[in-house]
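Do me a favour: review this protein, sequence plus structure tokens, and tell me how the chain folds. Record follows.
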Amino acid sequence: MNDLQQLSGPVVLGLFILFFGASLIISLRISRKRENADGYMTGGGRIGFGISAASMTATWIWAASMYASATSGFQYGLSGPIHYGLWGALMILLIYPFGRRIRQVAPRAHTIAEVMFARHGRSSQLMLAGSNVLGSVISLTSNLIAGGALIDMLSPFTFTQGVIAIGAGVLLYTLWAGFRASVLTDFMQVIFMLGAVVIIIPVVFFAAGGPSLFETGAHRLTPQQGDFFSSDAFFNQGAPYIAAVLAYAIGNQTIAQRLFAVREDLIKKTFVTATVGYGATIIGIGMLGVIALYAGIEPVGGDVNNLIPQMAATYLSPALLALFFIMIIGSLSSTADADLTALASIVMTDIYGQNIAGKGRANPRTMVLIGRITMVVAITAGVFFAGSQLNILDLLVFVGALWGALVFPVIASFYWNRVTNSAFSIAVVLALAAFLPVRFSWIDLSGGLGIVSDVLATIGIGVVLGLMAFGFFGKRVAFVVGIGSTLASAPFAIGFLHQYPVLSGSLVAYAVSTVVCVALTLASKQKPFDFDLIKVRTGDFDPETDPIPVAGSAAGPGPATAGSGSAAAPTPDLERNFS
């Protein structure tokens, strides 16, 4: 550690003041004495293309994803960051087809859990809300861990001091204006990040040896690390992440919040742009791990979370090191503030708005106060859990797999009018019960149970690929892809997949939730659901004042009553259902 360059204490403090001071000024300029509850959660649902695309890009180019991509490059070689970046980009792209349907049936909602309450009832709502609380706290913790590692490596301050300082800085500017502060500061943060990446990656590459590094360092790689089509990378990183990305796209409130915030006619444009920006940037950052692998660099203290700041401290000049510092602070802040606003929206809408006060009786001013208290509690919990310094890559894959239990029931609930609350709830509970013992190897899968696990995981392959195909091409193609991929993979997967518990656990969760949800739905005699009811049951909590527009948002007043707002004209694909 003593051989690595560091920024001096005054320089670090100056960069903190510059970055968080600018963010606070932006937040204070848009804050209002009489805060609008709906604006605090979703910006009124009228944010324009530029701000939305920048926010989506910045939110998912987060410090944890940067660190995880570099870790993947260090562990698996060149194919690691490509698996991580491409499938992460696919996650963002998958929001577009399903997002259009979600906004069509719930144009004025604030959370997916709120829509599940309108569609099914309290149990499905609380399952989705609870999983998002867990996911957002883990995400927030991951970002604070990344920030603490950065401060510890590049400054005279300690890991704990870094975690506390970053948590306080993010809370300071997010607390006042909520979601609007998050999306507006994202625009500034994404400029810092993209600009820094374009400069820093080439500098590190050439400082480490340039193209010749791939020859001089090749002997340090295992055969799997040197193979671009590494099966090790695919089964341990790529395949689990392919399964996880669909879950992130459907289950994550930070994504849903931006889906409900962007103007409905700009959904496709926004998320396609963010897809390209995320994929290119994260694959580029992951190359730092590949460079470290070829250069024979070992992470300080054996902690892969130290890898990115260690590479920067080894190869960058002081000026570029300061630029790198701002890049990482910006990336972690852009997602940490999204996690805070996501948690605030869940507590404001799903806990207070619908389960304590009740829709129509919720006090908007009380909602905003509850949202701010939630942020303070969340950042405190994040700082506390960050002390564990868990592996960021493991945290991300675990959360994605956990959400896999929810994917099919949630998607089916937006298209299939026969899905019931009991089918949804029982399917999720049983899927989680199957996921946990497989994921953590609590049971011996070497015998008959291993075959059962493999059969379910094989069905899970068909479910994942079928749902992806359904989003873009409709029901018929989805059935062909789903059944075809299950049959094609069965001879290879059965007897083999249980050797990879991370992948198997995720696929088993998909399979169990799908089979149980379909079976219970087909057995039900309940009357088909009228999707128009969702528009009536969801809507603004604060209709007396117009949501305060965000720069780049559409002009014109917002809807005046709950459940109002115009949905985009339905397309043939979106009108199809599973029946």
About this structure: Residues 318-356 form the longest helix (39 residues). DSSP finds 24 helices and no strands in the chain. The chain has two domains: 9-390, 392-540. The domain at 9-390 is CATH 1.20.1730.10 (Sodium/glucose cotransporter).
